[in-house]
Amino acid sequence: MSDPNTHPNNLAEIQASIVKKIASLPQVLAVIEGRDLGVSLYAEMLMKSLKPEQLSSFVEASDEDIKSHAKQFIEGEVNNVLVQLTASKEGYGGSAEEVLADFDLWHSSLSDEDRSKFEGFLEKQKISYDDYRTKTGNDEAQQRRLSTDRWVREKVVEGVEVTQEEVEAAYDQGKAQNCTSPDMVKVAHIPFRHDQSDESREECRKKAEVVLEKLQGGATFEDMVKENPSSDGHLQRMGVLDFFAAGTYNQKFEEAAFSLAQDEISEIVDTGDGYEVIKCLEVKKGEVTPLSDVEEEIRQGLKGQKVNLRIGELVDESRPQFDITYHI
Question: For a tag site, which of 51, 162, 172, 327 has the least CB within 10 Å?
Fold first, then answer.
């Protein structure tokens, strides 16, 4: 395994490592309608996504793993181009005017601070505002992106509906994971731990029985903790365990704790590694977030899923109409 301290720590080293690792891949990974999708796209993606601490794992990957990863990446790029081609075929070819309108809207919305930063960027690049704006408008990739986004909004999103029944079904399905805070309980306890031997078990059991008998006779739980502290920390907090949800402690301990009403004291609880006497101090019932609070979030999430599925269907329908060649 590589020493983590040997990770490249600057962009030049990372880039050199990536270029060396993917050198065996074809320079052109795929061609769609005469447009080359080169290995440089793959390298660019790696540069943006790989963190320095992840680089050693990438460099140590086998050639087959790298090839498989590159195939997966380029298939996604082909699908992106297919979306653009499908949009273009329906009249959404993009234009400089659309990009410029988007640029002007962005520029007019800048805060004073961001505008100052942008002007500093132009000065550093030694380019005027007008020249930069013109260059932006002539960016064909940006033209395609904007027109494709507009096609998705107008031709896909507008046609997707989410019913109230679907929202309610999704709410019910995700309620336990996403919309509910769990039941919680706060208890005080007096533990008697044993070493699994019969003698130790019997001794601990008898101690627990004495404590329970005293509690049932009117002794306070605090007095019993003082007489039977399991540790300095246990005594300092008077045996109290703050609010906890199921899955925090021993299962048998939790089953007993959650079965108690407030101020109720348990019978002797055998946890497997000792005996416990437990007092319930307070119960917090879990709360369910009302559907009205999350309805729009659920609706938009479902709509996003449907939009992606519809785009996938449209891409699959249009795929045979375009010339695609893979070189990997």
Answer: 51
Residue 275's closest CA among 203, 219, 222? 203
Please check whether residue 190 lies inside any domain of the structure.
yes
Kindly state whether residues 251 and 304 are assigned to the same domain.
Answer: no
- The residue among 64, 89, 114 that closes a domain is 89
Residue 205 structural domain: 184-284
In a domain, 289, yes or no: no
Interval 272-292 mean pLDDT = 93
Count of structural domains within the chain: 3
| Residues ≥6 apart with Cβ < 8 Å to 186 | 240, 241, 242, 243, 244, 280, 281, 282, 283, 284
pLDDT of 159: 84
Global pTM value: 0.60
Residue 202 is encoded by which pair of tokens?
């019997």
What ranges make up the beta strands (E) of the chain?
28-32, 35-38, 184-193, 240-245, 269-270, 274-284, 324-326
Could you tell me the sign of the dihedral formed by the alpha carbons of 195, 199, 202, 205, in that order?
negative
Which residues, other chains included, contact 285 with Cβ-Cβ below 8 Å and sequence gap of 6+? Answer: 183
Clarify whether residues 105 and 235 are in a common domain. no
Of 116, 113, 250, 124, residue with least CA distance to 191: 250
CB 87 within 8 A of CB 157: no
Residue identified by tokens 């998705």 is 152
Q: Quick check: is 270 in a domain?
A: yes
Q: How many residues in the chain? A: 328
Q: Which percentage of the chain shows pLDDT scores above 90?
A: 77
What does the pLDDT average to over 207-229?
95
Q: What is the pLDDT of residue 64?
A: 93
Residue 258: partners with Cβ closer than 8 Å, 6 or more residues away: 183, 185, 246
Q: Which of 188, 187, 186, 189 is nearest to 276 (CA)?
A: 189
- Report the side by side order of strands in the sheet with 324-326: 35-38, 28-32, 324-326
Claim to verify: residue 30 and residue 171 sit in the same structural domain: no
